[in-house]
Design goal:
There is one protein chain. The protein is of the alpha+beta class. The chain is built from eleven helices and 22 strands. It has helices at about 85, 90-105, 135-145, 150-170, 200-205, 225-230, 235-255, 265-275, 280, 290-295, 310-315, and strands at about 20-25, 45-50, 50-60, 65-70, 75-80, 115-120, 125-130, 185, 190-195, 210-215, 215, 325-330, 335-340, 345-350, 360, 370-375, 380-385, 390, 395, 400, 410, 415-420. The strands form five sheets. A seven-stranded mixed β-sheet has the order 1-6-7-5-4-3-2. It has a six-stranded antiparallel β-sheet with strand order 13-12-22-21-18-19, with no helix packed on it. A hairpin with a 2-residue loop joins strand 18 and strand 19 (about 395). Helix 4 runs antiparallel to helix 7 (about 235-255), helix 4 (about 150-170) packs antiparallel against helix 11 (about 310-315) and helix 7 crosses helix 10. The radius of gyration is 23 Å and the shape is globular. About 40% of the residues are buried.
């Protein structure tokens, strides 16, 4: 069985985890040198197992991204196909496969889902969920056009979700190495899905000049941590946190920390010259606590950054004071069951009783199961001696527990709730 940790090394390739589907759709095994150059995978109607191409979404350095549908249920999907020239490079093909396996293995609500990996006419492909909410970069660009900054609470929420994704990925030994607004995709409800794992590692093997400076594997320079310029192989999880810090800074201010860094050499010099201008100098309404989190994410020395995504997420949770009264929305199975405002000193009771503040349906609920309350320290959930327990972010609530942005709440075994604050 594969280890719970996931390492990108060619000597010990990962096994496909249980439930992951690999298909070689070629009639006969096709060596990497026999890639079919004449084949156009973007032709509508092309079949990748049960998935049919319906259109073309875009093209990047690594391959095509096609729109498709699952012929079994009509579900829309994205199909990513490696470029033919890369299909002749065994290490590039192996990296592509490892990306698919790694993302499947993490299986997190804020990481894009992979449904299938295979090879067709010598071209590796993967089938992923299709998101139609754009990206965080779209959000930033819209705020620039409209000259309206992204609300602080929204920016904090987006970064919190991304930190949750990184915490899960890093816990499996998987580094992203190309965190940037374009790779933070949004579903239609506004939830983040982290995409494009493994691209930097793959590009390292391709000889793509646009991604190489003096032989060093590159991500996207504006978002790269200083240490990645010097030695990409030495970058650890704190490098992803730096890149997320750049993204956070840009979300709040509309500009990256060093917008003058148009080339890697100039950007390196700017990074080494001292800290970026404080967030509040460019946007005074940002809380000081949020500014401090951004500054720590952007520390030049990795040892001075947060040690982990979990530590950064914990710091962020306490950095943004909640408004009083606090707008609260509660969703059950994607359906909004409550929308209102909670003031300090009030409590919102959840349960199956008709006179509960939020009357819910579901097996295993107590009449008065749990309550939400607001204090100067934040929003808290308390179990009301329920029969089957209350769980916050997967942990049983035995004493009042602080609720973070978009934390998931479970009442008993069967009733899952999502809280949206602000």
């Amino acid at each position: 069985m594969p280890s719970e940790d996931f390492e990108f090394d060619f000597e010990t390739p990962p096994e496909e985890p249980r439930g992951f589907t690999f298909l070689d759709l070629d009639a006969e095994p096709t060596p990497a040198t026999k890639v079919d150059d004449r084949w156009d995978p973007s032709t509508p109607g092309t079949r990748f197992a049960d998935y049919e191409v319906t259109g073309r979404l875009g093209q990047g350095a690594m391959g095509l991204v096609l729109e498709g549908r699952d012929t079994r249920n009509g579900r829309p999907v994205a199909i990513k196909v490696l470029h033919a020239r890369l299909g002749r490079i065994p290490k590039a093909v192996e990296r592509f496969r490892r990306e698919a396996v790694a993302v499947w293995k993490v299986r997190h609500e804020h990481i894009i889902e992979v449904f299938l990996y295979g090879i067709l006419r010598g071209r590796p492909f993967m089938v992923l969920e299709l998101l139609r909410g754009g990206s965080v970069m779209d959000l930033i660009e819209r705020s620039r056009r409209e000259r309206r900054p992204v609300p602080v609470a929204r920016a904090v929420d987006l970064i919190d979700m991304t930190l949750a994704a990184l915490e899960a990925a890093h816990g499996k030994g998987l580094l992203h190495r190309d965190i940037k607004p374009d790779n933070l995709l949004l579903d239609r409800s506004g939830r983040v899905k982290l995409a494009d794992f493994g691209l930097v590692k793959l590009r390292e093997q391709t000889g793509d000049a646009s991604m190489t400076v003096t032989g060093t594997s590159m991500g996207t320079p504006l978002y790269m941590p200083p240490e990645q310029f010097a030695d990409a192989k030495s970058v650890d999880a704190r490098g992803d946190l730096y890149s997320l810090g750049v993204t956070f800074y840009e979300l709040l201010t509309g500009l990256p920390p060093f917008p003058e860094g148009k080339t890697p050499a100039v950007l390196q010099a700017l990074q080494a010259s001292g800290p970026a201008p404080p967030v509040r100098r460019r946007r005074p309404d940002v809380p000081k606590g949020v500014e401090a989190v951004v500054a720590k994410l952007l520390e030049y020395d990795p040892a001075r950054r947060y040690a982990s995504a979990g530590e950064a997420r914990h710091a962020l949770a306490g950095a943004c004071p909640l408004p009083d009264p606090l707008p609260v929305r509660i969703f059950q199975d994607g359906r909004e069951v409550y929308r209102g405002r909670l003031a300090r000193g009030q409590q919102l009771v959840l349960g199956r009783a008709s006179d509960a503040g939020v009357c819910l349906e579901g097996r295993g609920l107590s009449r008065f199961h749990a309550k939400l309350s607001l204090s100067p320290e934040g929003l808290f959930v308390t179990d009301l001696d329920s029969t089957n327990g209350t769980f916050l972010a997967g942990r049983r609530v035995r004493r009042p527990a602080r609720v973070r942005l978009r934390d998931r709440l479970r009442l008993g075994k069967h009733v899952g709730l999502e809280l949206r604050l602000g």
